[in-house]
Amino acid sequence: MAQEAPDFLGRDGQLDGEAAAWLRLLTTPGVGRVTARRLLARAGSAQGIWELPHGAWRECATEAQANALAALPERWEQQLEATAHWLARPAPGLAHALVPLGHARYPDSLLQTQDPPLLLYVQGPAELLASARPWFPYPRALAVVGSRSPSAQGLLNARQMSQALAGRGLCIVSGLAQGIDAAAHEGALKAAATASAPVTIAVVGTGLDQVYPRRHAGLAREVALHGLVVSEYPLGSGPLAANFPQRNRIISGLGQGTLVVEAALQSGSLITARLASEQGREVFAIPGSIHALQSKGCHALLRQGAKLVECVDDILEELQGIESLANPLPNAPETRAKTTLEPDASTPEHPLLAAMGHDPLPLDELVARTGWSAAQLQARLMELELDGRVARLPGGAYQRLVRG
């Protein structure tokens, strides 16, 4: 595009002409990203599209799309008013922005993908969004994704790995979904106190005036205060099923690589990994039990050439060509050279943990393995559960937890 778009931070609750033009383009029914790109290339700016004659629209779009462009979108005035209000009145400590394709603030990493979003809605710390520093910390970013129904060990792995990686200078990108996504954000946030840059980015599948799932409202606010919450969907957009596979290309596109912690064979996490590979990014996977459904997807990725991850350095070594990854951020806490997923060999192992192995087991199987009575086992299991070394699973099964 010929001209740089203005800085859309909202002034006195009003949108300027270019911002309004972008909103009209992207809320016109039937006009998708491909057609929008053709129109932008022809006009040179979003505002310029509405100065083109109908015939020029027809050269870039179908007749039905050209007719749709000629009419204002449904509830257009309400959309303008809601967006202006959202821009001008963020929550305390936060700021809101619109970042269109071609803007100086648009992340370089997404420009290198085949299908970059045309407009990003961004929520983040007021100090960051008002500063001249880059908002999107590419290439110091890694996507961390996985199952919405993970094992207890998977949750622990996601938190520990994300915290250690954030402590080493990577920004953790995920999708704010329940399960592994939430654990990745939570882990990264633990490194926020000493970090000098955003520690995590949540790419969501709704408008930024909503939080999905609702139970993550507190987590979304913490991410916004210490990182960024990002969406390509207009305000008012609900959690439509089709939105989430689409937003995955942004999650993978913002990162230099994608780490899959746990995933079933048919899952959105594998879509994200495939997109990462197509975008020329690294794909990492944590192996798991051969009996766990949540590990099948990771094992499939490993067979396809993904990098096996047992510790933080397995990721850092693959990204070592990127300057600034070799050392922690300034003032970052010292971290161990390796945050492993294996127990400390110097610590004597509890006999019940040795009998459990690493797969979920029902109580009767533990009785058979140990020869102890059910009452003895339940007492020992409760001690280990209180100590954070065993998790009780739905259905009465138990699983050993391994801490790095």
Would you write up a description of this structure?
It is elongated and about 85 Å long. Mean pLDDT is 86; it is low at 1-6, 323-338 and 340-347. Helix 11 links the parallel strand 5 (200-203) and strand 6. It has 18 helices and twelve strands. It is of the alpha/beta class. A nine-stranded mixed beta sheet has the order 1-2-6-5-4-3-7-8-9, sandwiched between helices. A three-stranded antiparallel beta sheet has the order 10-12-11. It has three domains: 1-76, no CATH class; 141-318, Rossmann fold, CATH 3.40.50; 351-400, Winged helix-like DNA-binding domain superfamily/Winged helix DNA-binding domain (Arc Repressor Mutant, subunit A). It has helices spanning 17-27, 33-43, 46-49, 54-60, 63-70, 76-88, 108-111, 126-129, 152-167, 180-189, 217-226, 243-254, 268-278, 293-303, 312-318, 351-356, 363-370, 374-386; strands spanning 94-100, 119-125, 141-145, 171-174, 200-203, 228-231, 257-260, 282-285, 307-308, 361-362, 390-392, 397-400.
